[in-house]
């Protein structure tokens, strides 16, 4: 097998892959690694979403990849430019952990579960089915999406490697 | 982000001094705990892009022991004490004369001892800051975890996410002259806390 080209997606960043390339993002905690895949065009997309909604943004220029509500439309657009079709896209996601278990506390500390809830709601609005997910818990994850198969592999310190 | 972008050299120096005092006290506490001299680096205060914060402790995927405390009170923020596994094992050996296993497994007892070390250090760090600034700063119950540095630290950055892609970091490393005892303190004050800290220190803003 030839060495697969790996495209790194940083925190609050998004990117697409095709032609056998793979996408990878490391150290997801409360952030959500949201991936889309079109199995006909063999185009994949990945966003490392940090916060649920851009409505709370106080920055002057919004980084679309950071918020679930702005990252998804941009990811879809990028994938369509690469030949994918929205109607064929399926989603897989991982992350959204609650790294430290506070009882009660500020809502801002529940950011992981809120990220997952928002991503789920937006995907439903867009009519994109969620094929699989590995979210929640209290541990970090590193994920990799293979654009040939659409397989999402998830690695964590406590639970080893899982494939979705 | 604008308020942070405009931080002047002088203001960064003030924050560095805050880190210095806090970490100095924590180093003394650690040195008492371990009954041996503990040094610390001059603190670094910088506006660090989210992506690079985990690089300071070996990268986003580096597995570390992290003790986290939420700082509550007038200047809230997040406090992390992060140690590499090798250092964690060596602290356990020295402090508790515990036989630790070679691999990355920890007993409940070991975890709880590490949590307590973090708690004592963070407590002395915070109480000196509180004395110095005259602001109330109380640590929450500490949490300890073994996980990827990126996943742990990103938890402390969410408050910053709404403002931009960098966070202000007050960072100090401890060492005992070797790699055997190396830990990083990260104090990530909430964005709202700066004005309060500066005001408390009599530093005029604007």
From TrEMBL, chain A:
GO molecular function: protein-glutamine glutaminase activity
Top-tier EC class: hydrolase
GO biological process: chemotaxis
Keyword set, alphabetical order: Chemotaxis, Hydrolase
Hydrolase found in the keyword field: yes
InterPro entries: CheD-like_sf, Chemorcpt_Glu_NH3ase_CheD, Cytotoxic_necrot_fac-like_cat
Catalytic reaction list: L-glutaminyl-[protein] + H2O = L-glutamyl-[protein] + NH4(+)
EC numbers on record: 3.5.1.44
Family recorded in the similarity comment: Belongs to the CheD family.
Function: Probably deamidates glutamine residues to glutamate on methyl-accepting chemotaxis receptors (MCPs), playing an important role in chemotaxis.
Name by which UniProt lists this protein: Probable chemoreceptor glutamine deamidase CheD
Organism (species): Paenibacillus beijingensis
Originating gene: cheD
From TrEMBL, chain B:
Stretches assigned to the CheC-like protein domain: 10-46, 109-144
CDD domains from the UniProt entry: CheC_ClassI
Hydrolase in keyword set: yes
GO molecular function terms attached to this record: hydrolase activity
GO biological process: chemotaxis
Cited Pfam families: CheC (PF04509)
Keywords: Chemotaxis, Hydrolase
SUPFAM superfamilies the record matches: CheC-like
PANTHER family associated with the record: PROTEIN PHOSPHATASE CHEZ
Protein's recorded name: Chemotaxis protein CheY
Organism: Paenibacillus beijingensis
